[in-house]
Design goal:
- This protein has a single domain (25-128), classed as 3 helical TM bundles of succinate and fumarate reductases.
- The protein has 6 helices and no strands.
- It has helices at residues 3-10, 12-19, 26-51, 60-67, 70-96, 102-128.
- Helix 3 (26-51) packs across helix 5 and helix 5 (70-96) packs antiparallel against helix 6.
- The radius of gyration is 22 Å and the shape is elongated.
């Protein structure tokens, strides 16, 4: 039997467990890439709409007109949510690199989740309750 086959047989349980691990981080890794790609598309769209469109303007009337559109609201609600997830997931990955005690990690994770939910709620509230008739 070759040394490679012996290695595989010896470590088969470990390798099998690793490939099926729920704690591998692969779903978070994929979501970070997917949300990053979505943010690139949304950011380019935002930049073109807001900075290359001479009619978009940055006054109250133009902002009110944009926020009256359900399509625009939906895009920006997605932008807020995806951006917050992507940013906080990146911060969480940086925190995990410090390999701190479990209690500190759980506490910081909880703080990130609460902060993210608060900021998402503020952003959603701003967009959903905007009244274009109030100056």
């Amino acid at each position: 039997m070759s040394s490679e086959n012996q290695y595989v047989q010896k470590n088969a349980g470990y390798l099998r467990g690793y490939t099926r691990s729920r704690n591998s981080g692969a779903p978070a890794w994929w979501m970070q890439r997917i949300t990053g790609l979505a943010l690139v598309v949304l950011t380019v769209g935002h930049y073109i709409l807001m900075h290359y469109n001479p009619t978009s303007g940055h006054d109250y009337g133009e902002t009110a007109a944009r926020l009256a559109s359900p399509w625009f609201k939906g895009v920006y609600l997605g932008f807020i949510t995806i951006g917050m997830y992507h940013g906080l997931n990146g911060v969480w990955n940086i925190i995990r690199d410090f390999k701190m005690k479990s209690m500190w990690g759980q506490t910081l994770f909880g703080l990130l989740v609460v902060a993210g939910l608060v900021f998402i709620a503020v952003g959603w509230n701003t967009i959903l309750t905007f009244d274009p008739l109030k100056p």
